[in-house]
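Today's session is about reading a structure prediction critically. Students often jump straight to the picture, but the first step is always the sequence itself: look for stretches that repeat, for charged clusters, for runs of hydrophobic residues. Only then move on to the predicted structure, which in these notes is written as discrete structure tokens rather than atom positions. Here is the chain we will use throughout the hour.
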Amino acid sequence: MRTIQLQVEDDNYESFLTVIKSLKEGMVKNFSVKESDAVNKDFEQTKVYFHKCLSDIENGNTQLLSQEQYTNQMSDFKENLKSKYANN
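Below is the predicted structure for this chain, in token form.
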């Protein structure tokens, strides 16, 4: 399943809804509408979050792993879980 996010101009909104609602039942699993202020709020929250993450990396408060380090750590983590819960 894939998720698609679209922005529709106000003057095309009703036509767009008509098209979406006319699609075959079951074709769209979930449909929701966010008003532009909600989208802007989400964007601002995400922007603040990623700015803090970047600052933490630059200040040395968070370790940024290479792809190889991440893969190795995740493999070790999964193996530890398998060992820990193997007999359950």
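Discussion point for the tutorial: The first helix runs from residue 13 to 21.
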